[in-house]
Amino acid sequence: MTIHLNASELADALITQCRATDYAGYDPFDGLNSELFKKLGLGSLPFAKIAWLQLHKRSLANLRPLVGVARRRNPKGIALIILGLLEYEKLVGNGSQIEEAIRLAEWLLEERCDRSRWKHSAWGYHFDWAARAFFVPKGTPNAITTCYIARALAALGDETGNQRFVDAATDAGLFLNSLHRNDGGYYAYIPGESAFVHNANLWAAAVVGETAKRIGNSALMQRALSATRSSVAAQRGDGAWRYGTRDHHSFVDGFHTGYNLEALAALQQAADTSEFSDAISRGMDYYRKNFFLPDGTVKYYDNSIWPLDTHSVAQAILTLLKVGGADEDHRLATRVFERALETLYMPDERRFMYQKNRLTTNRINYLRWT
């Protein structure tokens, strides 16, 4: 189905919908917020936690209202919206987007994890998070959420001259520095965990590097560069990255590859170096060749199209425009946008669905993701 909708009209529709719930929504991984699950007393069983979380992540029907999962704001989602509002302000220029971004940023400052425990500004998810490698209780900060919030606060602070936002972003960079593991020369995803995940390491390095530049700390910058070299050394000869170094991290997917490339470009800019240009070039070449079909369809994995995924589409457009930027990247980004409208956009609801597989479709509205 051909949908005639330009990017500005789409932005209007999406922002309007986010405002309708005051930016609260469901998340693919929020199943453990279920009141029913707590009443059943299954929380002491690690397998039950993972099974329950995966049930809600994979279900085509949104079971959350039935099991007592409430709509909530997701801190990382709010950071992404602030960055989007700043981009949108460049188009409309009437100040309204800035006012809204400030309101959301103030909420983020209130949602910081316990600073008496973590010493610095840091953020995590609003739900318990169970994975094969670790269990992360609600209130525990993580690298990715903190990185995106730090960048959103820094950008908003620079735009408005509000030093409180810049100071919080700087403080977040110091928290990320505390995640550095001397035993491996990389930044951990979660405090106290040893998993080496490349997108977390590279984004932490980028934000630590931006912090180092802001405060003039050469030791911080050198640590960020050293950690970046750890992930660059793990880049395959063809330009790809596995998700991480553990056995179950062997997959190569599109949006984490995009994260890696965007973070590398940000760190290189902060450090005023061209050291990682070859890694970025090889990574972009692999990305273009292995994650897109000629019609603009974005593949989830390098070796599989499915599922079609809105988050993958969004990161693809960012990566092509911010890291690539060549004429061919702009043309491909346009095809990606148009193809996403054909395959993932629901005009009656004026939003994108979560995922489409070969035989099934998940239309749930996950605000952070869709």
Describe the overall structure.
The chain has 370 residues and is mainly α. It has 2 domains: 7-24 and 73-362, Glycosyltransferase (Alpha/alpha barrel), CATH 1.50.10; 31-71, no CATH class. Helix content is 56%, strand content 5%. The chain has a 3-stranded antiparallel β-sheet with strand order 5-8-9. α10 runs antiparallel to α11. The two termini are 20 Å apart. The mean pLDDT is 95.
SSE string, helices as H and strands as E: HHHHHHHEEHHEEHHHHEHHEEEE
Q: What number is the mean pLDDT?
A: 95
Largest sheet: 3 strands, antiparallel
The CATH class of the largest domain: Mainly Alpha
Helical proportion?
A: 55-70%
* Total of domains: 2
Tally of helical segments: 15
Low-confidence stretches: none
Outline: globular
Please give the alpha-carbon distance between the first and last residues. 20 Å
CATH architecture of the largest domain, by name, is Alpha/alpha barrel
Radius of gyration of CA atoms, rounded to a whole number: 20 Å
The name CATH uses for the topology of the largest domain is: Glycosyltransferase
Strand order of the biggest β-sheet = 5-8-9
Q: What share of the residues does DSSP label as strand, in percent?
A: under 5%
Structural class by secondary-structure content: mainly alpha
Oligomer: single chain
Tally the beta strands: 9
